[in-house]
Amino acid sequence: MGPKIPPFPPREFATIDEVLAGGAPGHSLDDSVTERGIALPGERAEHPGKVYIIGGGPGAVDLLTLRAVRALGEADVVLLDHLAPQEYGEYAPNALIVDVGKVPGKHAVPQSRIQQLMIDYALSGKTVVRLKGGDPYVYGRGAEELDACIAAGLEAEVIPGITSAIAVPGRAGIPVTLRRVSSIFTVVSGHSGLSEDDLAAVEATLRASGTVVLLMGVRTLPDTVASLLSRGIEGEMPLATIENGFSENERVTVTTLENAKADCARVKPPAITVIGEVVYYARDDQNRFVSEVHERLRERAAS
Questions:
Q1: CA nearest 145: which of 118, 120, 109?
Q2: Which of 30, 102, 223, 263 is an active site residue?
Q3: What are phi and psi of 272, to 5 degrees?
């Protein structure tokens, strides 16, 4: 299922394929695009527009920053990611919304196409918002997009967002650091599986009583778990997954490293995995601790 799109008039929403149909060599603009009046990038303007690369936070629209809201209000075009807040309509009332989301397991829009579209709109005088989930500089390719804008001679600004690596575990009551329990944490992407260097960093963090936060790691979680167990990490090491953080479908699964393959078999992305003793602080929707082990950690943290 694709992202929920606010009820804008049809002329104000387009897929990237529709927008780019007129620019591909040997292709003419699809009739449905012209009939719907979708605004395509025009000729180069005397005064180019500005690009805002915005972190939309972990999914709840009211976690957008005030600066992000102001930028959305200026937008002529919003290039929307799959994990960006979807209920943004009131903040971008006059913008064309272009869905460039990358959904796991489906054909992804090439990053080069997204960047070119962003640049083309700005060069034609439009104010462009590139709206992402989380923070643009935490596995968000924000630096690449900023480089592309600068190389094209455009004014661009990066607006930080609340990273899901900290906020989503916190939503479930899990702190990534806790006095006398965990003083360090490591964030790692599991999108393509963990490399030997990644695994070495994760192992070192866990052996130092730290916390590991795994992003985009649902598909590769069984391999990650098997690799950590083979490296001698204790099977009783607590592990939690938080699916659909800050949404009505949020679900928290608390287990251990040795039981994760079975207990997390039905976990679907988007989800974040946390490994470490701080997982014992996970709470349910009634703010009750999920694990009885939290009492021992509370005593240690208070001493």
A1: 118
A2: 102
A3: -120, 140
Going by their DSSP bridges, the two strands 13-15 and 77-80 should be labelled as: unpaired
Q: How far is CA 60 from the centre of its chain?
A: 12
3 state SS of 48: coil
Q: Among 120, 132, 135, 216, which one carries the catalytic annotation?
A: 216
Residue 6 in any domain: the answer is no
Both tokens assigned to 134: 């989380």
Question: How does pLDDT run across 192-231, given as a tens digit for each residue?
Answer: 999 999 999 999 999 999 999 999 999 999 999 999 999 9
Domain that holds residue 290: 165-302
Of 162, 188, 220, the residue at which a domain comes to its end is 162
Give this prediction's pTM.
0.83
pLDDT digits (tens, 9 = 90+) for 147-194: 999 999 999 999 999 999 999 999 999 999 999 999 999 999 999 999
Instruction: Identify the residue whose tokens are 């009131």.
Output: 90
In the set 81, 99, 120, 135, the catalytic residue is: 81
How far apart are the C-alpha atoms of 82 and 86, rounded to whole Å?
Answer: 8
Domain count across the chain: 2
| Buried b or exposed e, range 226-252, using 16+ CB within 10 angstroms | ebbbeeebeeebbbbbbbebbeeeeeb
For the question of residue 81 being annotated catalytic, the response is yes
What tokens appear for 167 in the block?
């906020």
Annotation marks residue 1 as catalytic: no
Cis peptide bond N-terminal to 270, omega within 30:
yes
Look at residue 293 and tell me if it is in a domain.
Answer: yes
Taking the C-alpha atoms of residue 63 and residue 71, their distance in angstroms, rounded to an integer, is 15
99 is catalytic: no
User: Model confidence at 275, in pLDDT bands (50, 70, 90)?
Assistant: very high
Q: What distance in Å separates the CA atoms of residue 149 and residue 157, rounded to the nearest whole number? A: 10
